[in-house]
Design brief:
- By secondary structure, the chain is of the alpha/beta class.
- Helix content is 26%, strand content 23%.
- Strands 3, 14, 15, 16, 17, 18, 19 and 20 form an 8-stranded mixed sheet that branches. The chain has an 8-stranded parallel sheet with strand order 6-5-4-13-12-10-8-7.
- Helix 3 links the parallel strand 4 and strand 5.
- The protein is elongated.
- The structure holds pyridoxal-5'-phosphate.
- The site of pyridoxal-5'-phosphate has 16 residues, from helix 10.
């Protein structure tokens, strides 16, 4: 890892360490200029240099614009960026500069944020599955906010991060999400109520509850359902003598792929209205943990066509093999759930479009990106052409294998 934002010339004055208590309005703040759907002027300029493929190009000004838009849509909420969506140092550094906080899932993610100047008081250890020694190491680094969804986890936290603030993740049903999270995380509200009391008994501070409505959540009303559950639980917990104050709204904010999604303002307004309607007494402190919604549309993945073929002369559908696939960045095509918009050098060349199966370059038959999705590409497409996958800023670089079949992980450039 090269925390490049912190590298200084040996001869130069050391950069002042700057801890931000209140977010500055902006760091660079030039709004991104979109020149085509999914493509900014900066991305286009970088791609014009014909970088080696496959590669991801991320325009950090888009991340910044998304951050400001979310902050404007939900001004009461503290924004904890879910680092796993894209942990690139330049991206995290930009967010540190903007005053963002960070939802981390592991010790390396914690250390990454700290190395780039984040305040440990602004990090949450949001994974509900943590080794005891990682909890201890996080506590030693100054983290005091931890997630849990089980009694055993609470006991680990009580022993290795004594007195910390904890929040319990509850199960929600994830309807409407294009990338649902199943039942892996969270516990039932009934169990959550018990565990919150247990947390207090163990000397921890049970500050509140969290949920995740499922990633790429295209239905803003899903937060209403989850918030109703949480408001109910708040009443129960108060009756038990606890003082819950924190509502962690999780992630789930969508990015624009092919189909339009509601604007972030719609999500913000819906959440604010639900909180005002459902919660009695003092307004809860809100946390939001965007991953995809903050970085998805900031990236474009440039690939090269390696082969265009047919399985038989009689078949109309061509197979188009790219140098990017399931194993080097495009894991979220699993189940064809996430459908990245595509663009090629030959779009609009007058040859017309024909149906294709789109596949990656490895010798594994699961390395097929889109088969059922009815992808259509120019009939003139051939080996050597470039094909772009838009809105690939989230869940791509780190979802690459270390070198399956000898293909390197996805290269990435931050501009
Ligand atoms: C992954 C994750 C997120 C981010 O989810 P998105 O759908 O990408 O916004 C937020 N919170 C937690 C706890 C997560 O694990």
């Amino acid at each position: 890892m090269t925390p490049l934002a912190l590298r200084v010339d040996p001869g130069a004055e050391p950069a002042p360490v700057c801890r931000l208590d209140s977010p500055p309005l902006s760091v660079v703040a030039r709004p991104p200029e979109w020149v085509a759907p999914g493509l900014t002027r900066k991305m286009a300029a970088f791609l014009a240099t014909r970088p080696a493929t496959p590669c991801l190009v991320v325009d950090l000004d888009v991340v910044e614009a998304n951050y400001h838009a979310l902050h404007a849509a939900l001004p009461e909420a503290e924004v904890y960026y879910a680092v796993k969506a894209n942990p690139a140092p330049p991206l995290v550094a930009r967010l540190v500069g903007l005053g963002a906080r960070f939802d981390t899932a592991s010790l390396p993610e914690i250390d990454l944020c700290l190395a780039l100047g984040a305040d440990p008081a602004h990090l949450s250890f949001g994974n509900t599955i943590k080794k005891a020694r990682d909890i201890a190491a996080a506590y030693e680094r100054g983290l005091r906010l931890f997630a849990f969804d089980a009694e055993e986890e609470l006991r680990k936290i009580a022993e290795h991060a004594p007195g910390s603030r904890v929040f319990c993740r509850i199960l929600t049903d994830n309807a409407g999400a294009e990338w649902p999270l199943s039942r892996k995380f969270g516990c039932s509200p009934v169990m959550a109520r018990d565990l919150m009391r247990r947390a207090a008994d163990l000397g921890l501070e049970p500050v509140g509850l969290s949920f995740h409505v499922g990633s790429q959540q295209t239905d803003p009303s899903q937060w209403d359902h989850a918030l109703a559950l949480v408001a109910d639980l708040f009443r129960g917990l108060r009756a038990d003598g606890l003082e819950p104050s924190l509502v962690n709204l999780g992630g789930g904010l969508p990015t624009r792929y092919g189909r339009p999604v509601p604007d972030v303002d719609v999500y913000g307004a819906g959440i604010r209205a639900a909180v005002a309607r459902l919660f009695e007494g003092p307004a809860p402190r809100l946390i939001v943990e965007p991953g995809r919604g903050l970085v998805g549309n900031a990236g474009v993945l440039e690939s090269e066509v390696v082969l265009v073929s047919r399985k038989d002369e009689s078949e109309a559908r061509r197979w188009v093999y790219l140098d990017a696939g399931r194993f080097n960045g495009l894991a979220e095509t699993e189940g064809e759930a996430i459908r990245y918009p595509l663009a090629t050098d030959r779009d609009g060349d007058g040859t017309g479009l024909g149906p294709v199966v789109l596949a990656g370059p490895t010798c594994d038959s699961v390395d097929v990106l889109y088969d059922r999705a009815d992808v259509r590409l120019p009939l003139s497409l051939r080996a050597g052409d470039r094909l772009r996958l838009m809105s690939t800023g989230a869940y791509t670089t780190t979802y690459a294998s270390v070198g399956f079949n000898g293909f390197a992980p996805l290269a990435a450039h931050y501009v």
